[in-house]
Amino acid sequence: MTEKVSPLAPRLYPELPVLEGVKLASIEAGIKYQGRKDLCLIVFDKPAEIAGVFTKSKCPSAPVDWCRKHLSKGKAKAIVINSGNANAFTGQKGVESTEQTAKAAGEVLNCSEKSIFLASTGVIGEPLDTSSFGEKLRMANAVVKSDGWHEAAQAIMTTDTYPKLASRKFEVDGKTYHINGIAKGSGMIAPDMATMLSFIVTDLAIDNKILQELLSRYTKTTFNAITVDGDTSTSDTVLLMSAGGGRKISSTKDDKLKAFKNALQDVMHELSMLLVRDGEGATKQVCIEVTGAKSKGSARKIAKSIANSPLVKTAIAGEDANWGRIVMAVGKAGEPAERDLLTISFGDVTVARNGERVPNYSEEEASKVMQADEIDISIDIGLGKGHARVWTCDLTKEYVAINGDYRS
Amino acid sequence: MTEKVSPLAPRLYPELPVLEGVKLASIEAGIKYQGRKDLCLIVFDKPAEIAGVFTKSKCPSAPVDWCRKHLSKGKAKAIVINSGNANAFTGQKGVESTEQTAKAAGEVLNCSEKSIFLASTGVIGEPLDTSSFGEKLRMANAVVKSDGWHEAAQAIMTTDTYPKLASRKFEVDGKTYHINGIAKGSGMIAPDMATMLSFIVTDLAIDNKILQELLSRYTKTTFNAITVDGDTSTSDTVLLMSAGGGRKISSTKDDKLKAFKNALQDVMHELSMLLVRDGEGATKQVCIEVTGAKSKGSARKIAKSIANSPLVKTAIAGEDANWGRIVMAVGKAGEPAERDLLTISFGDVTVARNGERVPNYSEEEASKVMQADEIDISIDIGLGKGHARVWTCDLTKEYVAINGDYRS
């Protein structure tokens, strides 16, 4: 584990506002780490509406299975999150750990275990000992508070070098509402979710079906449009909750949703960028924008092929405007592309047009673009109208160092 | 470019036998490198039978287009190979470069330009200046020799740290025949071919259709079953030639082919392993063997998912028997897999069975396996009979160093 903080870490952290009916506690449970908080409890005064999206891994963790199983009811009394152990590939023991945790939380909070949602992150394959979770959750429930967001964001970290928080205010019928979100994730981040956990809560009253529709829709262009290393975690989980009282919005066409939709997209985008900027070993935030592809899906595939290419990512680390490797990555995506129609730009410097280097392009100006810590690379395929954006970071020696010495 | 030789380099190089009717020359053409040979000519006294397999990139290099166009005739008088410039993404100029080179070689050798095959490797996107190739090829043709194999293997190198050669003898009807092969490639190597060039010649007379069938078949389990970084080159080319005189074997069922088939597979496997062992920054050769998958194709996809995972590869670099990351990579392959049926072994140490860590497995013994420079990782999916093997290397800081400073 590294002690260094990402050079792309935010200079200031937002202070998340109190949301009525939502309390949080973070405590030291000693799961793996010593001397830091690693167990987080988010409790809703009244059961919240809940929606979720999860990893596409064929070998999901036990908590992911648990959440999927109980999501259909759409109600959550509490979320229990631990770091240090993913409770993944833990067989029957893993299933029992989730049951034990949910049961313990249900007893502490006097509710059905089915309204307890779980997430675990950390080492894969080690059994998670939950025998003391009853006691730990009792301790946590005794110290819940409304302003526990920053601590919670810290408690769910693994190889993250900084906590990730985002918040937006919005107005509906002259009244101010909020969305608070926290996230974790640094390695094993790929477009089909990531070792990524995120918990987002609003105080606007919205039905869980609407939450689910919007969460699924916006995940495509936010959490699923980022990649650090192309590796997909067993444990990816994003939960969206509404703790708002009163009449629930129950149609996606309700005008009252307008401001919420924008705010939700903003929060999800901001958390996604915080994840990319904390990519293991990252020194650059990179946006790959593909236009002119045959379709949106084709554009996404090409953008991901570029964003996941080790040769492209190492070139970016070396501040090298190496468009030859971009061509390679376009070619290997397997999507319709014609060499002699491609146009490639770094920032506002177009280096190749119609399949050839632009004769008079300035290498100096391209170099300047590469020296910044935010780099936009755009590729026009010249075939259609498909458009997509994917965000990633560079691949550095530090990535290898962090991951060559993780488990031990 | 690194000066270091791979720690996995062979201690001895095979001396390739003379093949009747085959001559080679390697000269300094000053294409990019100074003070080393970078242009190689392989000439056949009589037109050889030829077969080829090429990159699946949608943006192939101009020489790949040229070879594809002229392969249907199945006859080659000569092969011209240059290193230092890939002549890829060079637009109309690239097409003209290939025409110019083939024409120049045709004039020097007094044959049709259509019987000249071409391969280029090196930087992508820079125009290849072939204006002096006529003179250079004349010089080369003046110094062709039968024992030029080692020099040729050196002339086609780019970031390779050692030349790659393999040879086999075999007998047909009491007479001894040979297969000689050379290859280059180090980065941008992926299962669907690689920045990989290979040229293989036999002195047994075989029709080009048979050569093509066998080359395509064996490529699947050799050159297309290796990966260094998952990146697919624009330029991958493997050419198989028969320079043998006399009656040509023209049926794959001909008994005379038996010994040839084995020898060809051996040469292709050996060259593939030489490529993996020279993977940029490699310190370990790794074989990923997947059994029990739903189908052969499914087994291949899972094996590649593991072999291309940066997290798996960095763990191997760190000599960490991190089977959690193997599970992750199985899960992200998207192929049928059930967590609770997986069995994972490092060498002969089984660390996980039926989706759980083997309680009494010896971490010490697993560590010992990881310290070797050849590591076998086997995964049984437990669902069917699909089997596949893929070879790769580890991902080290050296890979990042080599590729963060290549073009400049």
3D architecture notes:
The structure is a homodimer of 408-residue chains. The first copy, chain A, is α+β, with helices and mostly antiparallel strands and 408 residues long. Helices cover 31% and strands 27% of the residues of chain A. In chain A, the strands form two sheets. In chain A, strands 1, 2, 3, 4, 5, 6, 7 and 9 form an eight-stranded mixed sheet that branches. In chain A, strands 8-15-10-14-11-12-13 form a seven-stranded mixed sheet, with helices on both faces. In chain A, α2 (91-109) runs parallel beside α3 (133-142) and α7 (296-307) crosses α9. The interface between A and B is large, with 73 and 73 residues.
Which shape of chain A, going by the Cα principal axes?
globular
Q: Strand-and-helix sequence of chain A, N→C?
A: EEHEHEHHEEEHEEHEHHHEEEHEEH
The CATH topology of the largest domain in chain A is L-amino peptidase D-ALA esterase/amidase
Q: Class of the largest domain in chain A in CATH? A: Alpha Beta
Main features:
globular, Ubiquitin-like (UB roll), 2 domains, alpha+beta, 7-stranded mixed β-sheet, 15 strands, 8-stranded mixed β-sheet, L-amino peptidase D-ALA esterase/amidase, 408 residues, homodimer
Structure summary:
The structure is a homodimer of 408-residue chains. Helix content of chain A is 31%, strand content 27%. In chain A, the strands form 2 sheets. In chain A, strands 1, 2, 3, 4, 5, 6, 7 and 9 form an 8-stranded mixed sheet that branches.
